[in-house]
Amino acid sequence: MIETLNRQTTISEPPAHDRVYRGLRQQVMHGELAPGQALTLRGIGKQYGVSMTPAREALRRLTAEGALTLSASGRVTTPELSNDRIEELAQIRALLEPELGSRALRRAHLALIDRMEVINEANARAIHLQDPVEYIRTNLEFHRTLYLRAQSPAMLGLLETVWLQLGPTMRALYTKLRRTTAPPHHRLILEALRAGDDAALRLALRTDVTQGLRHLQG
Amino acid sequence: MIETLNRQTTISEPPAHDRVYRGLRQQVMHGELAPGQALTLRGIGKQYGVSMTPAREALRRLTAEGALTLSASGRVTTPELSNDRIEELAQIRALLEPELGSRALRRAHLALIDRMEVINEANARAIHLQDPVEYIRTNLEFHRTLYLRAQSPAMLGLLETVWLQLGPTMRALYTKLRRTTAPPHHRLILEALRAGDDAALRLALRTDVTQGLRHLQG
DNA sequence: TCATAAGAAATGTGATCACAAACCCGCGCC
DNA sequence: GGCGCGGGTTTGTGATCACATTTCTTATGA
């Protein structure tokens, strides 16, 4: 006898496929998965305690966003980006992020800058602890905290799909580099914000974005 | 008795969910669907002669790209964009398209410009015939033909998701305006291409993009 | 030792079903 | 006349299954 043990409490929960989607999306964006990592419907289903159907919807959604790659036979893996593709995605970041930062600049008050400061300290700690996932997470949170103030949800949405595509690559990059020194540009970003200097902010964001990814080029 | 009449010829065909996806995507992007149009799983399935499963995957994929909107109860419709959202999407186009055009400029040879000229004539015919779908289709093809030369697949992919989101809105716009005169900027784009003038091309693309969408603002 | 073919396991695809929630329409009450 | 409240219908969700294909494994042969 199979109990209908769905729908537990009193308030409706998000659908299973959405829960799976969110979990996987975070894993990909934060670099918890290496490039080329294979994902199977039954494996994902087992991991989240659901059947193949919600797992399939989550994977379909993520591949549509570029977070995952679909092979010719329908197999799903995390993307292994070519150098050209990495370069192009970095250029897209260099196009979108200064624009978002500039739009946020007018609305950025002191409390926001303080919050970014705190996130940046967590970022520095992650570097000291050699924790790539936490480094990526705090780095993205630093940027997103600023861009949320731009009030440009569509542009931020596009940018997040770019971050998604770069997730596994960033993991591979930062575990290889094993950097021990904090990225210098976050300080420049904060200074430009405090000074209200649009041109300086755009430049600092652009260099912060391109700097991190350019190490892979050879 | 149910025949296993799948897998027809000798070479494997694309999966059913992909066929459904492509069909719907084209309908949305070319403005064949009005904003707020509701789509149901069983309806789509019947329309394409498949079950709910492939229809569901196609809709999930399209909503992930922003081509369709998901209501809180899981219902799927074509998006009804607010004026703010339309404005923002136009600004994204104004950011991406000059960049793509500029990248294509170096690689644009005469045959490409001739091809764009032909497409532009088809576009003018569509205006004369008051055919909004054909107008949108040829207009996008005009731009895409240029941007393909940029060899920036990721950036073009992002742009196409923006076009997708604007599809139903563009239909509503151009059926309301009933414009009878060709957009003047396509000629400027072609002239800038022939002259190899980067600044002029960027400007022409930007104004062409913002011009078309700004009529909705009140 | 390595390539290769055959068998076994794993995987994506699509159909079908049960079910709960949402939606719609009309009746009746104030 | 307007408003809420039924009940029937529609709709999305998730599970399960059959099946073809791909992938992996292993044993065989040169």
Structural features, described:
The structure is a homodimer of 218-residue chains. Chain A is mainly α and 218 residues long. Chain A is 67% helix and 3% strand. Chain A has helices spanning 16-29, 41-48, 52-64, 83-105, 110-128, 132-148, 153-177, 185-195, 198-214, and strands at residues 38-39, 69-70, 76-77. Chain A has a three-stranded antiparallel sheet with strand order 1-3-2. In chain A, helix 5 packs antiparallel against helix 6 and helix 5 packs antiparallel against helix 8. The structure holds a DNA duplex (30 and 30 nucleotides).
Range of strand content of chain A: under 5%
CATH superfamily of the largest domain in chain A: GntR ligand-binding domain-like
Mean pLDDT over the full residue set of chain A: 91
The interface involving the most residues is between: A-B, 29 and 29 residues
| Number of separate structural domains of chain A | 2
Biggest sheet features of chain A? 3 strands, antiparallel
Query: Which blocks of ≥5 consecutive residues of chain A have pLDDT under 50?
Result: 1-10
Q: If classified by CATH, what would the architecture of the largest domain in chain A be?
A: Up-down Bundle
Provide the CATH topology of the largest domain in chain A. Four Helix Bundle (Hemerythrin (Met), subunit A)
Oligomer class: homodimer
